[in-house]
């Protein structure tokens, strides 16, 4: 079958690195005589609807040049169409691709897009919206919320890290009421990370043992923790060694329901996603992606 590429490029992701990536990808696709179409994303709350409207039905390969938010919008635009997703990560955090092998630089990543192998991965679903990496509720939802509104002389990852430190020093634990595979729990938590992937926030490996094709969601909860212990242990979350802390618990489930609480903020694949209630499940082996052979 002749392959047809549809390229979704976000000019805003990661301070505009998409243009250079797009030029190089176009050159390589031209050289190999592939058909392709390009969609440059507009700033919009309904990005997935714009992508879906422009997607040709005979597309075989959808390439995302952007960060996790652009991957999320593209994934939701596919609405079950059987197309292979591949990635050039030019976002700020790029947390999802830390779970897979696509190559370390632009040239290798383009090689993977054209000549890579296929892998079929699980997809999470939260209140009918799909996610590829995860949903964060509590502390990291608050960061995404505040990041959207804060003005700073810094930008990108540095702005994000400064916000993490600021909120780390003030965020209080909140009551979570939730059902994991039907079992009711009620806990005061700083955060709950529900993952298909492993990492949030550009490198915090909250669920280091998560696998993207095991049919399960990995959950990390962090309970009430003193301000001193937060700052002292924050590095452990980057290395994924926080499991030794008594405030941390890990779970693997197929379904979680988090009850209504307007004091809890959430994000889905790094995009602000409001407040619970959330009904979160996993669709096993639901999406083909392109990875390094
Ligand atoms: N043309 C555009 N101008 C401004 N914003 C845009 C444009 N196109 C898309 N967006 C916004 O970009 C956001 C997604 O950015 P994306 O997540 O891909 O990059 P990032 O935030 O730099 O990376 P990451 O999520 O990996 O940290 C969405 O909120 C979307 O509305």
From TrEMBL:
A single MF term (Gene Ontology): kinase activity
InterPro entries per record: ATP-NAD_kinase_N, Diacylglycerol/lipid_kinase, Diacylglycerol_kinase_cat_dom, Lipid_Phosphate_FormReg, NAD/diacylglycerol_kinase_sf, YegS/DAGK_C
SUPFAM superfamilies: NAD kinase/diacylglycerol kinase-like (SSF111331)
Leader sequence segment: none
Domain DAGKc residue range list: 1-130
Pfam families tied to this protein: DAGK_cat, YegS_C
Top-level taxon of the source organism: Bacteria
Swiss-Prot/TrEMBL cofactor(s): Mg(2+)
Keywords: ATP-binding, Kinase, Lipid biosynthesis, Lipid metabolism, Magnesium, Metal-binding, Nucleotide-binding, Phospholipid biosynthesis, Phospholipid metabolism, Transferase
Protein name: Diacylglycerol kinase family lipid kinase
